[in-house]
Amino acid sequence: MIDRPFPELEIGEVKRSRGRTLTETDVVNFCMLTGNWLEIHANAEFAKATSQGERIVQGSLIFSIVNALLPFDSSVVQVFYGVDRLRFLKPSFIGDTVWAHSKITELKPRADGTGIATCELQGLNQRGETVMRCDFSLLVRATRLLATDNTPFS
């Protein structure tokens, strides 16, 4: 998503990720990790009787996968700053494939030379539908932090 120091970024830059298919393992592991065992995610028989007719993938899992599909460069990204206006617009199902699409919409310089880069982040499925969208912000360094043998990234 962000792979250059803040002064080199431009509003309007677009990135698209590779695809990733959502699996049964993803859903079950996320249930275990979060304790979110809602039957719409975990019970196939229950889900058959719902308006979707099958289990849906947890929205928070979709967000986690989509934002990680576009790699971050830790030599320039200092911290995750926040997310706003997160919406799940369509359900995602086991077997769907998702892609991430991001566009830099705002750049706010800070006095120390760093800046906040905000991207519109969308998750798209194999049908071209937007399943998720949000405004995703990162604090970005002014210069690339270079690792040495003795100095870890900070």
TrEMBL record:
Recorded superkingdom: Bacteria
Matching InterPro entries: HotDog_dom_sf (IPR029069), MaoC-like_dom (IPR002539), MCH/BMMD (IPR052342)
Protein known as: Bifunctional protein PaaZ
Pfam family, one: MaoC_dehydratas
Presence of keyword Nucleus: no
Residue ranges of domain MaoC-like in the record: 13-108
Keywords tagged on the record: Plasmid
Keyword Mitochondrion: no
